[in-house]
Amino acid sequence: MISLEEFYEHFRQSVISDAESRGLMRPQAFFETVCEDLVSIGDLTNNYSYSQFSKRGIEIHGYDYDEERRVLTLLNYQYFQNDFIETLTGAQIDTKLTRTKNFFSESTRQDGNALWKKIEESSEAYSASYLLYDYCLREKVDKVRVLLLTDGKVTSRLKEIPAERINDFDFEFRIIDIEYLQKIYLSQNELSDFEIDVNLPALKIDSGSGYYQSYLTVINGLDIVDIYDKHGQKLFEQNVRTFLQFRGDVNKGLRNTIENRPDMFFAYNNGITATASDVELDSDGRITKIKNFQIVNGAQTTSAIYASNINNGHNVSDVNVQMKLSVVDDGKNLSEFVSKVAEYANTQNKVNKSDFFSNSSFHREMKDYSNRVFAPAVGGVQVRTHWYYERVRGEYLNEMTYMESKEKQRFINENPKNQLIDKRFLAKAENSWNQKPYIVSKGAGYFGRTMPPISV
Protein backbone atom coordinates (compact mmCIF):
# COMPACT_ATOMS: atom_id res chain seq x y z
CA MET A 1 0.00 0.00 0.00
CA ILE A 2 1.25 3.49 -0.83
CA SER A 3 2.50 5.33 2.25
CA LEU A 4 1.11 8.69 3.34
CA GLU A 5 4.39 10.38 2.41
CA GLU A 6 4.39 8.78 -1.05
CA PHE A 7 0.78 9.78 -1.58
CA TYR A 8 1.51 13.34 -0.46
CA GLU A 9 4.31 13.68 -3.01
CA HIS A 10 2.07 12.22 -5.72
CA PHE A 11 -0.73 14.60 -4.73
CA ARG A 12 1.61 17.63 -4.55
CA GLN A 13 3.05 16.97 -8.00
CA SER A 14 -0.43 16.43 -9.42
CA VAL A 15 -1.55 19.85 -8.17
CA ILE A 16 1.58 21.52 -9.58
CA SER A 17 1.10 19.83 -12.95
CA ASP A 18 -2.57 20.75 -13.09
CA ALA A 19 -1.82 24.38 -12.25
CA GLU A 20 0.84 24.68 -14.94
CA SER A 21 -1.13 22.93 -17.66
CA ARG A 22 -4.29 24.96 -17.06
CA GLY A 23 -2.70 28.28 -16.22
CA LEU A 24 -4.11 28.33 -12.68
CA MET A 25 -2.64 29.51 -9.42
CA ARG A 26 -1.66 26.51 -7.32
CA PRO A 27 -4.21 27.20 -4.53
CA GLN A 28 -7.07 27.05 -7.04
CA ALA A 29 -5.66 23.89 -8.61
CA PHE A 30 -5.44 22.39 -5.11
CA PHE A 31 -9.03 23.42 -4.38
CA GLU A 32 -10.40 21.88 -7.57
CA THR A 33 -8.36 18.68 -7.19
CA VAL A 34 -9.73 18.08 -3.69
CA CYS A 35 -13.29 18.99 -4.69
CA GLU A 36 -13.21 16.54 -7.60
CA ASP A 37 -12.15 13.81 -5.17
CA LEU A 38 -15.06 14.73 -2.90
CA VAL A 39 -17.47 14.69 -5.84
CA SER A 40 -16.28 11.19 -6.74
CA ILE A 41 -17.40 9.81 -3.37
CA GLY A 42 -20.60 11.83 -3.04
CA ASP A 43 -19.37 14.38 -0.47
CA LEU A 44 -19.99 17.23 -2.94
CA THR A 45 -22.15 17.72 -6.01
CA ASN A 46 -20.92 18.78 -9.44
CA ASN A 47 -22.27 22.26 -8.63
CA TYR A 48 -19.34 23.32 -6.45
CA SER A 49 -17.80 26.68 -7.32
CA TYR A 50 -14.47 28.38 -6.62
CA SER A 51 -15.15 31.82 -5.11
CA GLN A 52 -12.25 33.45 -3.32
CA PHE A 53 -12.86 36.21 -0.77
CA SER A 54 -10.65 37.28 2.12
CA LYS A 55 -10.61 40.34 4.32
CA ARG A 56 -10.20 40.99 8.01
CA GLY A 57 -12.10 38.30 9.92
CA ILE A 58 -13.96 36.98 6.84
CA GLU A 59 -12.89 34.32 4.36
CA ILE A 60 -14.21 31.74 1.91
CA HIS A 61 -12.86 29.94 -1.14
CA GLY A 62 -15.92 28.21 -2.52
CA TYR A 63 -19.35 26.76 -1.96
CA ASP A 64 -21.62 23.95 -3.05
CA TYR A 65 -25.40 23.60 -2.98
CA ASP A 66 -27.21 20.28 -3.11
CA GLU A 67 -30.67 21.30 -4.26
CA GLU A 68 -32.24 17.89 -3.73
CA ARG A 69 -30.95 17.48 -0.18
CA ARG A 70 -31.15 21.24 0.59
CA VAL A 71 -27.60 21.24 1.94
CA LEU A 72 -25.36 24.30 1.60
CA THR A 73 -21.62 23.64 1.87
CA LEU A 74 -19.08 26.40 2.54
CA LEU A 75 -15.53 25.63 1.46
CA ASN A 76 -12.32 27.05 2.85
CA TYR A 77 -8.75 25.80 2.76
CA GLN A 78 -5.36 25.86 4.44
CA TYR A 79 -2.95 25.12 1.62
CA PHE A 80 0.62 24.79 2.91
CA GLN A 81 2.23 23.68 -0.41
CA ASN A 82 5.42 22.54 1.30
CA ASP A 83 7.79 19.68 0.46
CA PHE A 84 6.74 17.91 3.65
CA ILE A 85 3.45 17.27 5.44
CA GLU A 86 2.56 20.11 7.79
CA THR A 87 0.38 19.69 10.88
CA LEU A 88 -2.87 21.63 10.86
CA THR A 89 -3.13 22.98 14.40
CA GLY A 90 -6.21 23.59 16.51
CA ALA A 91 -5.62 27.34 16.39
CA GLN A 92 -5.47 27.32 12.59
CA ILE A 93 -8.68 25.31 12.44
CA ASP A 94 -10.49 27.69 14.80
CA THR A 95 -9.37 30.71 12.78
CA LYS A 96 -10.43 29.27 9.43
CA LEU A 97 -13.81 28.02 10.66
CA THR A 98 -14.57 31.31 12.40
CA ARG A 99 -13.73 33.34 9.30
CA THR A 100 -15.94 31.05 7.19
CA LYS A 101 -18.85 31.35 9.61
CA ASN A 102 -18.44 35.13 9.51
CA PHE A 103 -18.74 35.07 5.72
CA PHE A 104 -22.06 33.26 6.07
CA SER A 105 -23.36 35.57 8.81
CA GLU A 106 -22.37 38.74 6.95
CA SER A 107 -23.76 37.48 3.64
CA THR A 108 -27.16 36.55 5.05
CA ARG A 109 -27.81 39.71 7.06
CA GLN A 110 -31.36 41.00 6.63
CA ASP A 111 -30.73 44.57 7.84
CA GLY A 112 -29.77 46.00 4.46
CA ASN A 113 -26.03 45.67 5.08
CA ALA A 114 -25.45 42.21 3.64
CA LEU A 115 -21.89 41.56 2.49
CA TRP A 116 -22.79 41.05 -1.17
CA LYS A 117 -23.88 44.68 -1.39
CA LYS A 118 -20.30 45.72 -0.62
CA ILE A 119 -18.59 43.48 -3.20
CA GLU A 120 -17.93 44.21 -6.87
CA GLU A 121 -20.78 42.59 -8.82
CA SER A 122 -18.50 41.08 -11.46
CA SER A 123 -16.52 39.07 -8.89
CA GLU A 124 -17.06 35.41 -8.01
CA ALA A 125 -17.26 36.40 -4.35
CA TYR A 126 -20.31 38.55 -5.10
CA SER A 127 -22.09 35.55 -6.63
CA ALA A 128 -21.20 33.37 -3.65
CA SER A 129 -22.35 35.93 -1.10
CA TYR A 130 -25.57 36.74 -2.92
CA LEU A 131 -26.47 33.09 -3.50
CA LEU A 132 -26.04 32.39 0.22
CA TYR A 133 -28.33 35.32 0.96
CA ASP A 134 -30.89 34.22 -1.64
CA TYR A 135 -30.94 30.53 -0.64
CA CYS A 136 -31.51 31.41 3.01
CA LEU A 137 -34.04 34.15 2.28
CA ARG A 138 -36.12 31.74 0.18
CA GLU A 139 -35.78 29.03 2.86
CA LYS A 140 -33.95 26.65 0.52
CA VAL A 141 -31.45 25.47 3.15
CA ASP A 142 -32.01 22.84 5.83
CA LYS A 143 -28.38 22.34 6.82
CA VAL A 144 -25.06 24.13 6.40
CA ARG A 145 -21.74 22.28 6.23
CA VAL A 146 -18.34 23.90 6.54
CA LEU A 147 -15.51 21.89 4.97
CA LEU A 148 -11.92 22.92 5.63
CA LEU A 149 -9.62 21.49 2.95
CA THR A 150 -5.91 21.08 3.62
CA ASP A 151 -2.82 19.38 2.27
CA GLY A 152 -1.65 19.09 5.87
CA LYS A 153 -2.43 16.50 8.51
CA VAL A 154 -4.93 17.49 11.18
CA THR A 155 -3.58 17.56 14.72
CA SER A 156 -4.07 14.32 16.64
CA ARG A 157 -5.49 16.36 19.52
CA LEU A 158 -8.63 17.14 17.56
CA LYS A 159 -11.27 14.53 18.35
CA GLU A 160 -14.50 16.31 17.45
CA ILE A 161 -15.84 19.64 16.24
CA PRO A 162 -19.24 20.21 17.87
CA ALA A 163 -22.18 21.17 15.68
CA GLU A 164 -23.56 24.68 16.12
CA ARG A 165 -26.78 26.60 15.60
CA ILE A 166 -26.09 29.88 13.81
CA ASN A 167 -28.84 32.30 12.77
CA ASP A 168 -31.40 29.46 13.01
CA PHE A 169 -29.32 27.16 10.78
CA ASP A 170 -27.73 23.87 11.83
CA PHE A 171 -23.98 23.87 11.11
CA GLU A 172 -21.70 20.86 10.77
CA PHE A 173 -17.90 21.04 10.46
CA ARG A 174 -15.42 18.68 8.81
CA ILE A 175 -11.71 18.70 8.07
CA ILE A 176 -10.60 17.16 4.77
CA ASP A 177 -6.89 16.54 5.32
CA ILE A 178 -4.21 14.58 3.49
CA GLU A 179 -5.07 11.35 5.35
CA TYR A 180 -8.68 11.63 4.24
CA LEU A 181 -7.58 12.24 0.64
CA GLN A 182 -5.30 9.21 0.82
CA LYS A 183 -8.25 7.05 1.88
CA ILE A 184 -10.20 8.27 -1.15
CA TYR A 185 -7.24 7.41 -3.36
CA LEU A 186 -6.86 3.92 -1.89
CA SER A 187 -10.55 3.14 -2.24
CA GLN A 188 -10.98 4.70 -5.69
CA ASN A 189 -11.83 1.36 -7.30
CA GLU A 190 -13.73 -0.06 -4.37
CA LEU A 191 -16.79 0.88 -2.39
CA SER A 192 -16.14 3.23 0.51
CA ASP A 193 -17.08 1.37 3.68
CA PHE A 194 -20.10 2.83 5.42
CA GLU A 195 -22.89 1.45 7.60
CA ILE A 196 -26.59 2.23 7.78
CA ASP A 197 -28.64 1.72 10.93
CA VAL A 198 -32.14 0.44 10.18
CA ASN A 199 -34.97 -1.53 11.74
CA LEU A 200 -36.47 -3.61 8.95
CA PRO A 201 -38.59 -6.77 9.05
CA ALA A 202 -36.89 -9.42 6.96
CA LEU A 203 -37.66 -12.76 5.39
CA LYS A 204 -34.47 -14.73 4.91
CA ILE A 205 -34.34 -16.56 1.58
CA ASP A 206 -32.28 -19.71 1.27
CA SER A 207 -30.41 -19.25 -2.00
CA GLY A 208 -29.00 -22.75 -1.88
CA SER A 209 -25.57 -21.25 -2.44
CA GLY A 210 -22.82 -20.14 -0.13
CA TYR A 211 -22.05 -17.38 -2.61
CA TYR A 212 -24.67 -14.94 -1.32
CA GLN A 213 -27.57 -14.58 1.11
CA SER A 214 -30.83 -12.82 0.22
CA TYR A 215 -33.52 -11.09 2.26
CA LEU A 216 -36.95 -9.75 1.36
CA THR A 217 -38.00 -6.69 3.31
CA VAL A 218 -40.18 -3.58 3.23
CA ILE A 219 -38.74 -0.11 3.74
CA ASN A 220 -40.82 2.95 4.58
CA GLY A 221 -40.63 6.18 2.60
CA LEU A 222 -39.40 8.15 5.60
CA ASP A 223 -36.53 5.70 6.07
CA ILE A 224 -35.57 6.11 2.41
CA VAL A 225 -35.54 9.90 2.83
CA ASP A 226 -33.37 9.64 5.94
CA ILE A 227 -30.88 7.21 4.37
CA TYR A 228 -30.51 9.24 1.17
CA ASP A 229 -30.24 12.47 3.15
CA LYS A 230 -27.27 11.07 5.08
CA HIS A 231 -25.46 9.17 2.33
CA GLY A 232 -26.53 10.69 -1.00
CA GLN A 233 -24.77 9.42 -4.12
CA LYS A 234 -22.76 6.84 -2.16
CA LEU A 235 -25.84 4.64 -2.44
CA PHE A 236 -25.51 4.52 -6.24
CA GLU A 237 -21.76 4.12 -6.75
CA GLN A 238 -22.32 0.97 -8.80
CA ASN A 239 -25.67 1.84 -10.33
CA VAL A 240 -25.76 1.63 -14.12
CA ARG A 241 -28.07 4.66 -14.19
CA THR A 242 -25.60 7.05 -12.62
CA PHE A 243 -25.19 8.84 -15.96
CA LEU A 244 -28.73 8.27 -17.22
CA GLN A 245 -30.40 11.40 -16.00
CA PHE A 246 -33.60 11.46 -13.96
CA ARG A 247 -36.24 11.71 -16.69
CA GLY A 248 -38.81 9.65 -18.59
CA ASP A 249 -42.51 8.86 -18.28
CA VAL A 250 -41.86 6.30 -15.58
CA ASN A 251 -40.79 9.07 -13.22
CA LYS A 252 -44.05 10.95 -13.72
CA GLY A 253 -45.88 7.79 -12.76
CA LEU A 254 -43.80 7.45 -9.62
CA ARG A 255 -44.49 11.02 -8.58
CA ASN A 256 -48.21 10.75 -9.29
CA THR A 257 -48.50 7.64 -7.14
CA ILE A 258 -46.55 9.21 -4.27
CA GLU A 259 -48.64 12.37 -4.35
CA ASN A 260 -52.09 10.91 -5.00
CA ARG A 261 -52.08 7.25 -3.91
CA PRO A 262 -49.16 6.71 -1.51
CA ASP A 263 -50.93 3.71 0.03
CA MET A 264 -50.80 1.97 -3.38
CA PHE A 265 -47.09 2.54 -3.98
CA PHE A 266 -46.16 -0.92 -2.73
CA ALA A 267 -48.56 -2.53 -5.21
CA TYR A 268 -47.67 -0.37 -8.21
CA ASN A 269 -43.90 -0.10 -7.88
CA ASN A 270 -41.33 -2.74 -8.78
CA GLY A 271 -39.38 -2.03 -5.62
CA ILE A 272 -35.69 -1.74 -4.92
CA THR A 273 -32.95 -4.24 -5.63
CA ALA A 274 -29.93 -3.72 -3.41
CA THR A 275 -26.68 -5.35 -2.37
CA ALA A 276 -24.52 -5.20 0.75
CA SER A 277 -21.32 -6.70 2.06
CA ASP A 278 -22.85 -7.58 5.44
CA VAL A 279 -25.95 -7.20 7.59
CA GLU A 280 -26.70 -7.52 11.30
CA LEU A 281 -29.91 -9.09 12.62
CA ASP A 282 -31.50 -8.88 16.05
CA SER A 283 -32.98 -11.80 17.98
CA ASP A 284 -36.29 -11.41 16.12
CA GLY A 285 -34.62 -11.64 12.72
CA ARG A 286 -35.01 -7.93 11.91
CA ILE A 287 -32.23 -6.19 10.00
CA THR A 288 -30.59 -3.59 12.25
CA LYS A 289 -27.48 -2.66 10.27
CA ILE A 290 -26.45 -2.77 6.59
CA LYS A 291 -22.82 -2.40 5.50
CA ASN A 292 -21.93 -0.92 2.10
CA PHE A 293 -25.54 -0.59 0.98
CA GLN A 294 -25.82 -0.25 -2.81
CA ILE A 295 -29.06 0.37 -4.72
CA VAL A 296 -28.49 -1.29 -8.10
CA ASN A 297 -32.08 -0.95 -9.25
CA GLY A 298 -34.39 1.64 -7.76
CA ALA A 299 -32.41 4.88 -8.00
CA GLN A 300 -35.40 6.55 -9.65
CA THR A 301 -37.73 5.23 -6.97
CA THR A 302 -35.42 6.56 -4.27
CA SER A 303 -35.02 9.97 -5.92
CA ALA A 304 -38.75 10.34 -6.55
CA ILE A 305 -39.63 9.61 -2.91
CA TYR A 306 -36.92 11.92 -1.61
CA ALA A 307 -37.79 14.80 -3.97
CA SER A 308 -41.52 14.51 -3.24
CA ASN A 309 -40.86 14.78 0.48
CA ILE A 310 -38.07 17.36 0.58
CA ASN A 311 -38.86 19.58 -2.40
CA ASN A 312 -42.65 19.33 -2.55
CA GLY A 313 -43.46 18.67 1.10
CA HIS A 314 -45.46 15.49 0.51
CA ASN A 315 -45.88 13.13 3.44
CA VAL A 316 -44.28 9.81 2.47
CA SER A 317 -45.02 7.96 5.70
CA ASP A 318 -47.70 5.95 3.86
CA VAL A 319 -45.25 4.98 1.11
CA ASN A 320 -43.81 1.51 1.51
CA VAL A 321 -41.34 -0.08 -0.88
CA GLN A 322 -40.46 -3.72 -1.24
CA MET A 323 -36.74 -4.39 -1.23
CA LYS A 324 -34.70 -7.40 -2.25
CA LEU A 325 -31.34 -7.30 -0.49
CA SER A 326 -28.50 -9.63 -1.47
CA VAL A 327 -25.45 -9.92 0.77
CA VAL A 328 -22.08 -10.92 -0.69
CA ASP A 329 -19.33 -10.98 1.91
CA ASP A 330 -16.53 -11.70 -0.55
CA GLY A 331 -15.26 -8.30 -1.70
CA LYS A 332 -13.56 -9.80 -4.74
CA ASN A 333 -16.86 -11.13 -6.06
CA LEU A 334 -19.04 -8.18 -5.06
CA SER A 335 -18.37 -6.01 -8.14
CA GLU A 336 -19.15 -8.86 -10.54
CA PHE A 337 -22.24 -9.77 -8.53
CA VAL A 338 -23.49 -6.17 -8.58
CA SER A 339 -22.94 -5.97 -12.34
CA LYS A 340 -25.00 -9.11 -12.94
CA VAL A 341 -27.78 -8.04 -10.58
CA ALA A 342 -27.96 -4.65 -12.32
CA GLU A 343 -28.12 -6.29 -15.74
CA TYR A 344 -31.09 -8.49 -14.91
CA ALA A 345 -32.90 -6.16 -12.51
CA ASN A 346 -33.03 -2.85 -14.40
CA THR A 347 -36.27 -2.77 -16.35
CA GLN A 348 -38.09 0.47 -15.37
CA ASN A 349 -36.53 2.53 -18.18
CA LYS A 350 -34.85 1.18 -21.28
CA VAL A 351 -31.20 0.49 -20.54
CA ASN A 352 -29.10 -0.70 -23.45
CA LYS A 353 -27.53 -4.09 -22.86
CA SER A 354 -24.11 -2.64 -23.65
CA ASP A 355 -24.45 -0.27 -20.70
CA PHE A 356 -24.20 -3.20 -18.32
CA PHE A 357 -20.69 -3.94 -19.51
CA SER A 358 -19.47 -0.35 -19.09
CA ASN A 359 -17.44 -1.31 -16.02
CA SER A 360 -15.58 -4.15 -17.76
CA SER A 361 -11.79 -3.94 -18.04
CA PHE A 362 -12.05 -3.33 -21.81
CA HIS A 363 -14.15 -0.19 -21.38
CA ARG A 364 -12.09 1.14 -18.50
CA GLU A 365 -8.87 0.71 -20.49
CA MET A 366 -10.42 2.21 -23.62
CA LYS A 367 -11.60 5.21 -21.62
CA ASP A 368 -8.13 5.62 -20.17
CA TYR A 369 -6.55 5.56 -23.64
CA SER A 370 -9.04 8.10 -24.97
CA ASN A 371 -8.08 10.46 -22.14
CA ARG A 372 -4.35 10.12 -22.84
CA VAL A 373 -4.04 9.73 -26.61
CA PHE A 374 -4.43 12.85 -28.77
CA ALA A 375 -6.26 12.78 -32.09
CA PRO A 376 -4.34 13.87 -35.23
CA ALA A 377 -4.28 17.64 -35.72
CA VAL A 378 -6.71 18.95 -38.33
CA GLY A 379 -5.59 21.81 -40.59
CA GLY A 380 -4.04 24.65 -38.63
CA VAL A 381 -5.94 24.04 -35.41
CA GLN A 382 -3.58 24.52 -32.46
CA VAL A 383 -5.74 22.94 -29.76
CA ARG A 384 -4.90 19.28 -29.17
CA THR A 385 -8.06 17.17 -29.13
CA HIS A 386 -9.07 13.74 -27.90
CA TRP A 387 -11.25 10.95 -29.19
CA TYR A 388 -13.95 10.94 -26.51
CA TYR A 389 -14.88 7.36 -25.63
CA GLU A 390 -18.37 7.29 -24.13
CA ARG A 391 -18.07 4.39 -21.72
CA VAL A 392 -21.55 4.97 -20.27
CA ARG A 393 -24.49 6.20 -22.32
CA GLY A 394 -25.05 9.92 -21.79
CA GLU A 395 -21.60 10.44 -20.24
CA TYR A 396 -20.56 13.14 -22.74
CA LEU A 397 -23.56 15.35 -22.01
CA ASN A 398 -23.55 14.58 -18.30
CA GLU A 399 -19.92 15.66 -18.01
CA MET A 400 -20.90 19.14 -19.20
CA THR A 401 -24.13 19.43 -17.22
CA TYR A 402 -22.79 21.63 -14.42
CA MET A 403 -19.90 23.31 -16.21
CA GLU A 404 -19.69 27.07 -16.47
CA SER A 405 -19.86 28.42 -20.03
CA LYS A 406 -16.08 28.93 -20.38
CA GLU A 407 -15.31 25.51 -18.92
CA LYS A 408 -17.91 23.92 -21.17
CA GLN A 409 -16.45 25.56 -24.28
CA ARG A 410 -12.95 24.38 -23.35
CA PHE A 411 -14.28 20.85 -22.90
CA ILE A 412 -15.98 20.94 -26.32
CA ASN A 413 -12.82 22.32 -27.95
CA GLU A 414 -10.76 19.48 -26.50
CA ASN A 415 -13.44 16.83 -27.08
CA PRO A 416 -15.35 17.74 -30.28
CA LYS A 417 -18.71 16.04 -30.60
CA ASN A 418 -17.70 14.66 -34.01
CA GLN A 419 -14.88 12.77 -32.27
CA LEU A 420 -17.18 11.02 -29.82
CA ILE A 421 -16.90 7.24 -30.03
CA ASP A 422 -19.97 5.35 -28.88
CA LYS A 423 -19.00 1.92 -27.55
CA ARG A 424 -21.64 0.23 -29.69
CA PHE A 425 -20.27 1.89 -32.83
CA LEU A 426 -16.78 0.79 -31.84
CA ALA A 427 -18.06 -2.76 -31.46
CA LYS A 428 -19.60 -2.70 -34.90
CA ALA A 429 -16.38 -1.42 -36.48
CA GLU A 430 -14.16 -3.82 -34.52
CA ASN A 431 -16.19 -6.90 -35.32
CA SER A 432 -16.64 -5.89 -38.96
CA TRP A 433 -12.88 -5.42 -39.33
CA ASN A 434 -12.33 -8.83 -37.76
CA GLN A 435 -14.76 -10.33 -40.29
CA LYS A 436 -17.33 -11.45 -37.75
CA PRO A 437 -20.70 -10.69 -39.41
CA TYR A 438 -22.38 -13.27 -37.20
CA ILE A 439 -21.60 -11.03 -34.21
CA VAL A 440 -22.41 -7.72 -35.94
CA SER A 441 -25.79 -9.09 -36.99
CA LYS A 442 -26.73 -9.71 -33.35
CA GLY A 443 -26.84 -5.98 -32.71
CA ALA A 444 -24.45 -3.42 -31.27
CA GLY A 445 -25.44 -4.17 -27.70
CA TYR A 446 -24.10 -7.71 -27.97
CA PHE A 447 -20.43 -6.78 -28.17
CA GLY A 448 -19.89 -6.41 -24.43
CA ARG A 449 -19.31 -10.14 -24.19
CA THR A 450 -17.03 -10.37 -27.23
CA MET A 451 -14.51 -7.52 -27.06
CA PRO A 452 -10.92 -8.75 -26.64
CA PRO A 453 -8.39 -7.26 -24.20
CA ILE A 454 -6.84 -4.03 -25.41
CA SER A 455 -3.30 -4.17 -26.70
CA VAL A 456 -1.82 -0.88 -27.84
TrEMBL record:
Pfam families linked to this entry: AIPR, AIPR_N
Domain Abortive infection phage resistance protein N-terminal: 30-183
Occurrences of domain Abortive phage infection protein C-terminal (ranges): 236-446
Protein name, as recorded: Abortive phage infection protein
Species of provenance: Myroides pelagicus
